[in-house]
Amino acid sequence: MSLTVQPTERAERGAVRLGTLTLGAGPAVVIGGPGADARWIDLRERLGRPAGGTADALAEVRACWAGPVLVEPSSADDLPGIAAGADGVVVGAAWTRDLRLVRAVSRLGLPVVVQRGPATSLEEWLAVADYCAADAGDRVVLCEGGGRGRAGSPVAAPDLALMRGARERSGRPVLAGLGDDPALAAAAVAAGADGLLLSPDPSRRTTAAAQEAVRVVGALTRREEPGSVPAARGAIDRVDAALAVLLERRAELAGTVQRLKPVGGFAGRDMERERRLVAEMARRAPSLGEARLAPIMNAVIEAGLHLAEERRAGESRGGTVPPAGERAADGLRERAPGSGEGRAGSTPRQGERA
Ligand SMILES: C=C(O[C@@H]1C=C(C(=O)O)C=C[C@H]1O)C(=O)O
């Protein structure tokens, strides 16, 4: 039995615009610090700092970032400043029981992100979202996890099954709150998160890992239906990112099997195994079919065999293999006996012209 990755159904989702960003349609977004698709400010973290408040905090971010900015208030006093300068408001987990603040927030005319805290049930959380939606014109996004009791205390890990359930029940976009830990980023994207909410100031590594999960895991697990050239190119770039990861992994494994086989490299080429492998792939790629997949996989397999032979040659010379661009062509292009045997129209060697 094969495991089929089910693309997440997205058509029925109610998308929410956040400035220039769309949540709930297209790829998952990353909300965090520099390098993310949107940024956010937690004014609770700024309590006790010299006055200046919301406007100063927003000006600081706007000075170096032109995209969407979300703000979590530290109290109702922050709301006018947020209304004047932010693209959305975060109702942090700590606020969900303060219905006066929730109501005031949802009357600002901005999209609202409603975060679930560890002590809030699914029912309560969805009820708060509905309460907001009445005033916020349905521009409500749910965020599972990531809530902190006090500023600085550790974030609560998201319950991804709950996040998925909330998304199905409400039809609203959902975020996974990850704080500074990208460990669940891939799982969250696969579980259908429309975005990942990091901490307001995550490390560069956290943001990069979250973005990579969105691209690679997103390409594998969710179907996109882009409606413009830039959107289609973005979707293609994400699929190519996933392909590159898989091609690199495949090349490593192809090298391993060459070392393990009694006769490796081009000399040990097994065309019957290659045919079966193409037939098996055609089940998952029926539009391409065996006829179109065969030359693609021939090129992939030959690239793997070349790499394995180059590495073996490097090892037997006692050195390490230089990067591809610096490699001497001589000695590496020698076709081993039996290579390409029986395959009509075998692709030209690397660097050769057809
Ligand atoms: C990997 C093997 O060696 C060769 C390379 C293959 C590949 O990269 O898929 C497939 C068959 C062989 O020609 C193998 O024997 O399985």
Q: Can you tell me about this structure?
A:
The protein has 354 residues and is an alpha/beta fold. The chain has two domains: 16-220, Aldolase class I (TIM Barrel, Alpha-Beta Barrel), CATH 3.20.20; 233-326, no CATH class. The chain has helices spanning 53-62, 79-85, 99-106, 122-136, 160-170, 185-190, 204-221, 229-260, 271-284, 289-316, and strands at residues 16-18, 21-23, 29-32, 38-42, 69-72, 88-91, 112-116, 140-144, 174-179, 195-198. The strands form two sheets. It has an eight-stranded parallel beta barrel, surrounded by five helices. Strands 1-2 form a two-stranded antiparallel sheet. Helix 3 (99-106) runs parallel beside helix 4 (122-136) and helix 7 crosses helix 8. The protein starts with 15 loop residues before the first strand and ends in a 38-residue tail after the last helix. Ligand ISJ binds at residues 254, 257, 261, 269-270, 273-274, 277, 301, 304. The ligand C=C(O[C@@H]1C=C(C(=O)O)C=C[C@H]1O)C(=O)O is lined by residues 254, 257, 261, 269-270, 273-274, 277, 301, 304. Residues 223-312 form the Chorismate mutase domain. Pfam families: CM_2, DAHP_synth_1.
Radius of gyration: 26 Å
Ends apart, CA distance between termini: 40 Å
Dominant shape: elongated
User: Which percent band covers the strand fraction?
Assistant: 5-15%
Give the class from helix and strand content and strand pairing: alpha/beta
Quaternary organization: single chain
Number of H/I helices: 10
- Give a list of the ligands: ligand ISJ
Question: In CATH terms, what is the fold-level topology of the largest domain?
Answer: TIM Barrel
Q: Find the count of extended strands (DSSP E, 2+ residues).
A: 10
Ranges where pLDDT stays below 50 over 5 or more residues in a row are 1-12, 326-354
Q: Report the biggest beta sheet as strand number plus sense, adding barrel if it closes.
A: 8 strands, parallel, barrel
Level-1 CATH class name of the largest domain: Alpha Beta
Count of structural domains: 2
- SSE string, helices as H and strands as E: EEEEHEHEHEHEHEHEHHHH
Could you say what the CATH architecture of the largest domain is? Alpha-Beta Barrel
DSSP helix fraction: 40-55%
